[in-house]
Amino acid sequence: MPELVFFSGTMDCGKSTLALQIEHNRSARGLVGMIFTRDDRAGEGKLSSRLGLVTDAVEVEDGQDLYAYLVDHLSQGGRADYVIADEAQFLAPEQIDQLARVVDDLGLDVFAFGITTDFRSKLFPGSQRLVELADRIEVLQVEALCWCGARATHNARTIGGEMVVEGAQVVVGDVNQAAGEVGYEVLCRRHHRRRMTAASARAAALSPDVLPVPAS
């Protein structure tokens, strides 16, 4: 039976790499996939991995009907044996509904990859709808690590290495950005709560301890 599968995890845990691996394995067997993406780090119409792999994809636009796009593609003689949707957290809830309809009405497997929560630990609307509708949810087993060595479970937005907790939900950036730029860092829950990034932890470690001065 075809399925809607949601592969979730933090940033830097290999979601896009797995999407590219699924595409490679299936295309090597003669299957043809339809790849959707939104706001990939490599630019418009690309699905990329931090390992340097990249392939072309359909850039999803606001208000685009993904089910209608597939039907139109197939009716014009195109082929699609499965669907990959990367950066699925950026899709609108109604677009997730359309992907579910692709599974149910067109009989195609849909593999969606995305981050579950944003930099404020709030659910992305697209990810929330995937959790509600997916036949199966797979948490990626390649664990991203916090700077302290614990398993990273939260995504933090940073500017100049300092964690920020205000701003638009969607701001495109990446891990390991240059100082002063909007970037992202994965943290364990404890350090996300304390807003302690690798840079701020390093600064605290380099600061001399203030010792009590005895009264004269």
Write up what this structure looks like:
By secondary structure, the chain is α/β, with parallel strands linked by helices. Helices cover 28% and strands 22% of the residues. It has helices at 15-27, 66-75, 93-106, 125-133, 189-193, 198-206, and strands spanning 4-8, 33-37, 46-48, 54-56, 58-59, 82-85, 109-114, 136-139, 154-159, 162-164, 182-187. The protein has a six-stranded parallel sheet with strand order 5-2-6-7-1-8, with helices on both faces. A three-stranded antiparallel sheet has the order 10-9-11. A two-stranded antiparallel ribbon has the order 3-4. Strand 3 (46-48) and strand 4 (54-56) form a beta hairpin. Helix 2 packs parallel to helix 3 and helix 3 (93-106) packs parallel to helix 4. The radius of gyration is 20 Å and the shape is elongated. The mean pLDDT is 86. Keywords: ATP-binding, Cytoplasm, DNA synthesis, Kinase, Nucleotide-binding, Transferase. It is found in: Cytoplasm.
